[in-house]
Specification:
It comes from Crypturellus soui. Keywords: Signal. Pfam families: CYTL1. The chain is mainly α and 133 residues long. It has a domain of 91 residues. 58% of the residues lie in helices and 0% in strands. The longest helix is centred in the first third of the chain and has 21 residues. It is elongated and about 75 Å long.
């Protein structure tokens, strides 16, 4: 009976450790990375939508690489773009881009490392196909 009790306590301790490890809060970097991917995918979905509004074609390209210093200018340009605000999807995308910019310049300023400042890479990115779901 004592052996069973020890095994049960060890199992509870192990499960508790696993739960604590998986519930760790996201880092600034992981939040910025996830949000940039979400924005890039939403923009791609918007452009490939069957019922795409013609003004979407005029939007600045929105490929985001948070390791490229030029991403800050790219976000500013996208948010400030004066057209397509009447479309809810574009307005929501601009709001996400504004949030990402704010997070990057305010909250994560010291945590981010830019590996390049190649603005052309954000205009003509090498895109890999999406992973199958």
């Amino acid at each position: 009976k004592l052996f069973t009790m020890k095994m049960l306590l060890m199992l509870i301790a192990l499960l508790s450790a696993v739960l604590l490890a998986s519930s760790a809060p996201p880092t600034c970097y992981s939040r910025v990375l996830a949000l940039s991917k979400e924005i890039t995918e939403s923009f791609r979905d918007l452009q490939t939508s069957r019922d795409m509004d013609p003004c979407v074609e005029t939007l600045p390209r929105l490929y985001l690489d948070i390791h490229n210093y030029c991403v800050l200018a790219k976000l500013r340009d996208f948010v400030a773009y004066p057209r397509c605000d009447r479309l809810l999807q574009v307005s929501a995308l601009k709001e996400k881009a504004r949030s990402l910019y704010t997070i990057m310049i305010s909250y994560c300023r010291r945590d981010l490392v830019f590996l390049t400042d190649d603005c052309n890479a954000l205009e003509n990115p090498v895109l890999f196909p999406a992973a199958p779901s």
